[in-house]
Fold:
Amino acid sequence: MRLQRQRWLGFSLTGLVLIMDQLSKAWAVQTLEPGVTRPWLPRLLDLQLVYNRGAAFSLLTGATGVLAVISAAVAVALAIWLWRQRQLPPLQVLAAGLLLGGTLGNGLDRWRLGAVVDFLALVPIDFPVFNLADVSINLAVICLGLSLLRGEQPHEP
Structure:
């Protein structure tokens, strides 16, 4: 993948994830009542507005400022890393774009609202409520794992 195209794809995916995440959260805040569960996809997914003041699985609850700074630092480091790479395998470009978009989405919530807006609740299992940024971050981890299993390495053009 050519350098300019790789960067364009990675940063375009970042923007797409960020826009979808922020629009979906704005919709959830305007439409849903906190703590009220609304069925959406039967036996799979409910909608439930929650404000998470911690990290994943509500870890570090109450440390919103610290988490906001960490989110910003991770986003800046990841953007610089993606910009500096000469050539990445496609799965790693996908992972970088997804991870950066998800990090920015949740980080923006922390900076603006002091909490992350979550609204997707899995029905079949007891799992923390999540959002599209969380889905994006998890998809990034899967892409990186697949890339590692395939033995892919960044290489020079």
Summary: The mean pLDDT is 88.
